[in-house]
Amino acid sequence: MTRRTIIKSLIDEQLAAANSPVRVEEGTRDRVLAGPVRTMSLTLDRIEEESRALQEALTTGASVVELDPNLIDASFIVDRFVDAADPAFDALRESVREHGQEVPILVRPHPEREGRYQAAYGHRRLKATRELGLKVRAVVRSLDDHQLVVAQGVENSARRDLSFIERAMFAKALEDAGYERPVIMASLSTDKTELSKMISVARALPDGIVRSIGPSPRAGRRRWLQLAELLQNEQALRRVELTLANPDLPSDSDARFLTAFQAAADATKSPALSESWRRPDGAPIARITRDRKTTVLRFDDQAEPDFANHVVERLSKLYEEFRARRT
In 3-state terms, what secondary structure has residue 62? Predict the structure, then answer.
């Protein structure tokens, strides 16, 4: 066996190995890292864990088998969004068509349906082989629900990154399913602070709107949180729902996010109220414009010369009268 073959074999087995919770090495507990650096560190820790799990996988005789993809169901927790425009998946499918499936997926015997399997990770590879009418290469392992969601989350962190909202909705789904936060942290290779931010944003957003927008990889936590705040306005919520129901909506999820965000922002802008102030004979000599924050009084100097100066000169006295009425 060549060195290249050995390395490829080890990598294949490593990707299929079970993943255990994050361990914090002694002497590093007191370090405080910024959010993205913490997440990167935790992901690297997870890769080290997978390396240590490699030998265990090899000694337990884990082997790659070919299965009918139609006998494999998705994980009971959805992580990736289904997006009509997914160039990365199209490229993956073409790679499988031309070169075959190089990396196996991980499945377990289905806990409720005899003769079927349930995917822990590799859903996009599974979809590609199904569309191409090919057998899927897989490692079959006995996993409980806890092991499955951890393996699912960690593999996604190590490979094609999920967008912020996909990670946030995955975390929310795990918590709704009854998983404790330490398990969710291990699954997403993240820490307590970042996880709390993700779940808070996911809970602030209507699920239907999030799914209609899609993964939107360019929109981070701040932008999704801004959208959630805008959607507290009922008019904005209705406007976004109608916008997302438009069949001519862009297929790109980032474009859909921007369209929905603009619709929500436009709906929350209070239109300025404007009215004319008229003389007893009905001639307009001033216009009053009000919005949520200001009131503007504009005088028509041609219709009534010097009236504006008269009002300005009396502002101090008018203010005193106003204060006297309030006391």
Answer: coil
Listed by start position, the domains of the chain span 3-23+33-204, 213-269, 273-326
Question: CB atoms < 10 A from the CB of 241, how many?
Answer: 16
Look up the pTM and report it.
0.53
* CATH class of residue range 3-23+33-204: alpha beta
Residues 6+ apart with CB under 8 A from 185: 22, 191, 192, 195
CB 263 within 8 A of CB 243: yes
3-state secondary structure of 105: strand
- pLDDT single digits (tens) 40-95: 444 444 444 443 443 344 334 457 889 999 999 988 877 666 655 567 778 888 88
Beta strand 72-73 with 273-278 is unpaired
Distances (CA, A) of 169 to 146, 218, 228, 288: 18, 16, 14, 47
